[in-house]
Specification:
The complex is a heterodimer of chains A (about 1150) and B (about 160).
Chain A lengths: L1 H13 L3 H10 L4 H17 L3 H16 L8 H8 L4 H14 L10 H9 L4 H14 L2 H14 L5 H17 L4 H11 L5 H17 L8 H10 L3 H14 L4 H17 L3 H18 L7 H16 L3 H17 L1 H5 L2 H7 L5 H14 L5 H14 L3 H20 L5 H11 L8 H14 L4 H13 L1 H8 L6 H12 L7 H8 L9 H25 L2 H14 L1 H4 L4 H22 L5 H6 L12 H4 L18 H7 L7 H4 L6 H22 L43 H23 L1 H8 L67 H6 L6 H52 L39 E5 L3 E9 L6 E10 L4 E9 L5 E3 L11 E2 L9 E10 L6 E13 L2 E13 L5 E2 L5 H10 L3 E8 L5 H12 L2 E6 L2 E8 L4 E8 L3 E8 L2 H16 L2
Antiparallel strand pairs in A: 1-2, 2-3, 3-7, 4-6, 4-8, 5-7, 8-9, 10-13, 11-15, 12-13, 13-14, 14-15
Helix pairs in contact in A: 2-3, 3-4, 4-5, 4-6, 5-6, 6-8, 7-9, 8-10, 9-10, 10-11, 10-12, 12-14, 13-14, 14-16, 15-16, 16-17, 16-18, 17-18, 18-21, 20-21, 21-23, 22-23, 24-25, 24-26, 25-28, 26-28, 26-29, 28-30, 29-30, 30-31, 30-33, 31-33, 44-45
Chain B lengths: L1 E8 L4 E6 L5 H16 L8 E3 L10 E7 L2 E7 L5 H19 L4 H6 L1 H12 L2 H4 L27
Antiparallel strand pairs in B: 1-2, 1-5, 3-4, 4-5
Helix pairs in contact in B: 2-4
Classes of the chains: A alpha+beta (about 1150), B alpha+beta (about 160).
Chain lengths: ~1150, ~160
Amino acid sequence: MALKMVKGSIDRMFDKNLQDLVRGIRNHKEDEAKYISQCIDEIKQELKQDNIAVKANAVCKLTYLQMLGYDISWAAFNIIEVMSASKFTFKRIGYLAASQSFHEGTDVIMLTTNQIRKDLSSPSQYDTGVALTGLSCFVTPDLARDLANDIMTLMSHTKPYIRKKAVLIMYKVFLKYPESLRPAFPRLKEKLEDPDPGVQSAAVNVICELARRNPKNYLSLAPLFFKLMTSSTNNWVLIKIIKLFGALTPLEPRLGKKLIEPLTNLIHSTSAMSLLYECVNTVIAVLISLSSGMPNHSASIQLCVQKLRILIEDSDQNLKYLGLLAMSKILKTHPKSVQSHKDLILQCLDDKDESIRLRALDLLYGMVSKKNLMEIVKKLMTHVDKAEGTTYRDELLTKIIDICSQSNYQYITNFEWYISILVELTRLEGTRHGHLIAAQMLDVAIRVKAIRKFAVSQMSALLDSAHLLASSTQRNGICEVLYAAAWICGEFSEHLQEPHHTLEAMLRPKVTTLPGHIQAVYVQNVVKLYASILQQKEQAGEAEGAQAVTQLMVDRLPQFVQSADLEVQERASCILQLVKHIQKLQAKDVPVAEEVSALFAGELNPVAPKAQKKVPVPEGLDLDAWINEPLSDSESEDERPRAVFHEEEQRRPKHRPSEADEEELARRREARKQEQANNPFYIKSSPSPQKRYQDTPGVEHIPVVQIDLSVPLKVPGLPMSDQYVKLEEERRHRQKLEKDKRRKKRKEKEKKGKRRHSSLPTESDEDIAPAQQVDIITEEMPENALPSDEDDKDPNDPYRALDIDLDKPLADSEKLPIQKHRNAETSKSPEKDVPVVEKKSKKPKKKEKKHKEKERDKEKKKKEKEKKKSPKHKKKKHKKEKEERIKGKKKSKKQPPGSEEAAGEPVQNGAPEEEQLPPESSYSLLAENSYVKMACDIRGSLQEDSQVTVAIVLENRSSSILKGMELSVLDSLNARMARPQGSSVHDGVPVPFQLPPGVSNEAQYVFTIQSIVTAQKLKGTLSFIAKNDEGATHEKLDFRLHFSCSSYLITTPCYSDAFAKLLESGDLSMSSVKVDGIRMSFQNLLAKICFHHHFSVVERVDSCASMYSRSIQGHHVCLLVKKGENSVSVDGKCSDSTLLSSLLEEMKATLAKC
Amino acid sequence: MIKAILIFNNHGKSRLSMFYQPYSEDTQQQIIRETFHLVSKRDENVCNFLEGGLLIGGSDNELIYRHYATIYFVFCVDSSESEFGILDLIQVFVETLDKCFENVCELDLIFHVDKAGLVGAPARAVSAVKNMNLPEIPRNINIGDISIKVPNLPSFK
């Protein structure tokens, strides 16, 4: 034995280790592959040996080779062997190799289950750690199912090192085995409050990752995260939480409102750029979710934009890049606030970093308006000239086209300018995007009828300079432009100034060097051109001229007939014959022009890209039905005896002919396709764009177009687009002047206005009318096309399975599968390991019990929080109702607080749904004068004891703007206002908004209360400047803040058993009160107490109910409310007698009003 | 989530790669090549973020990289990661390597791939770094078994 070991270690000395391998590879630069294959052979030999050290060394080398791109899946079994080595150093190598090379398809992976379980429960934390780390890389659904419970147990391990890893790996387990999410979630949630910051942040990470995919299931965690956010100082955790909130806010706008303040505080206070950036991002997300109807957040937007501006102006390229990135998010909802930073964005275009330039380009896309489009494009054009590197230039080119063509050319006021931009772009050398320009030219020429004349003149100029284009740019795509140019000149040849000249240009010998598809278009359009020339000449009676043109055609067309391109050849020879025929007719003096141009009669209209798909199948048409009965061969097949064994026949029971037909049909279709594919003469359907020659539905539909005469129509050569910018300015100026005149003639104009086409682009608020009265033809869609929007959701999304409701209580069936010891024993583990396993698994059981209790507590807490939330929601509703002066009848069917989750409770809070309650508001009037009305509501703070939040609604009732509002409150010994740092007690606290006339808004202030047992009042003054047309005046309004004891109570649910215990405990003092003359129903009475005094109903029996609430400082308040005839008695018990008596006094006042 | 960590030198030679999603070896190599082409074209003093290539890209992912001397450290992450955070993480990772190897240079990575990989693993368990303390390097583990002599070559750094 000893000898064997010695021999083993001697062997090892001669083995290559990883370093030798690396060195060897470096020394065999020329024949690396050969050297490596030699090494792999050696490794294979080593793997055959018994010595585990040798094996580990071999696997170690394999890991390296895997990294270099060699497949090592053949060694999977050996890797498992090394994984199961008892020595940590070997085990680690094994797991490393496994994590790199194992995946779901590895078949031996199922052998690892027990080994991993053993390692997970190993007494050494490093064994456990390495197993967890490895498992995270190759966990499969099976492994996840089998090990989920073990890993969950590890989440409560004593060592944070293990807890942390276990929490992290749970995410992978959830992904592979979604059923584990619900059972494991409570514990995961618990880890959010783990004492170890590492574990805590791991839990935050996992939940954030989960919530990112299915945010709605995690909304209930928002209060917890909110607490973490306000308490945590760990920037990493903060970033994650803030990112999570970004995902949650779109689902819950109320959350967003709450977030704005702490986030803006963070933005102001943090010095960490990463945190600042994420805060800004989330604020943006909040603002997007709130974008409707929250005008007062412009301050937040301004703050974001300002901060981003600072980022963008920074010299650090990373900040700049991310600043631009975030800016583009704001752009989507608040384009105005970004547009003011146009200068900055344009500046970024000059940046040397391409990524930054591209980001800036993205931004520009959203920033254009009718006003600045020309200017921006001009700037971009200069960049196109300057740009080095074709990719960036191409990007610029596509961006220019994108910017101009976005939303149906919405921002283009002058299409002549756009055409000339396109023409200028054709001078770009080496661009790949010729086809893009061509497509734009075609699109504009077809859809903007007014521009055709101009477009044709430009295109003919392009064709004329075609030799220039064709010679130098054949290699790159710019010659595609000629495709468009030729087509436009041909199709709209009636607009050509010198058709003959263009015809000659198109028939130049150089043209034959163009790509085939362009030549084909040339040939086709030459005929169109020819037809229109012919017509002109004949109308003018120039028979000779007509014959000369024909002769030109006959002379030049043969060059196309010889083309190698089939399409060109075919068209050319066809047309050549046609022209020869015409020539014969011309010789006999027969007028032919009519007939030739009849070939191209009709108008082409653009067809929407999805039109074909959306043609509805007419009723009663079955596209799969046979038109003619199928031939009898299938029947004869049936009769053949051997058909019984035919696979398809078997699937064709006779009593279900329709299905059989379908199958048969599919088979035949396939066969037909095969046949067609093999048939050289079959013309396959080509994906060429659908062109429809319509019978012109009437020329009167084409609007009469007036072209602004300030623009010269005949532009010699290629025009510079710049001139349009000047012209445009002049034009706008003139327009302004005209507008004044027009005002006088408004009546007349109204008459005229009726004639305008309905699809005219609406005039922008900037009052820039387009230069041409342009009729943008909308794309054609088939009649009664179905508005079908495809479902974007990917059914294969792995995160879909994790869309699980986490708030439902756990069912027994959902427990994680727990493996029995039998499994641990079957693995060949040494005997002594077994007890360890047992111990380990017993401990957690105890823990689990405890854990369950904790869980229940948690559940309660959660409910509390939710309940706290819901009355607030109610209040908001009321506020709105009040503002909108809507009678509450519709909305009176409000939800009693917490009715959903209180399903298990004996009695529900407040009023049941069937009974109507008048709308109530918790906002009480504070003070009012002719300028302003103040109403306030005081709520206990959720997070801090002895703090209350006072929400003051300020409504401007005057016609002046209220500015510079300041609130000064005289603190008492007992209650103090929380003021911003550095301000003294006597300073006023500014109200963070201004109020335009008729607007109301809410400001929140926090007060710290020492003792809450008695009610108290604070004097305060609101000072403000009222500004209107006449001037500004300083005004004041005194008010008294009344802190009632009820406002210190927080609605808290309580179970009847807990309630009974509380009463039994005997530490509560008692007091009672009775009110007579009450006619209100008991139901409504309870609802009133719940609403105004923040109680919740514990139990209700007939006309008797027990209620509970808690103060912000933790006093329990229990009530027994009994209703007699016309009277109500309230018995209260509370841990503080003063508080109780004050409360009962308040309650008496409320009840007296009933 | 971090999708992959790629470390390669100025010539695109892979020095360490960790993929946290299964890819075949060929795809892995292709990703590395593609990433190298994307990254190597970029000047110094430009920003450290890149939209991913086709393979590991996708709309959600981006590449965040840093260039130290002769080596690129590229992290491929999805949008749940903070960009600045990852930049810091790379910094921490390199500092950790530096601690491990005392004045880390490319050769360290070449010859101690296994060790570097192990350093990388805890660095990835992001939580460790999230405390912003350097992760505890598993020094307390006995790495002695794989004791390696660093060849006496001039440092690349």
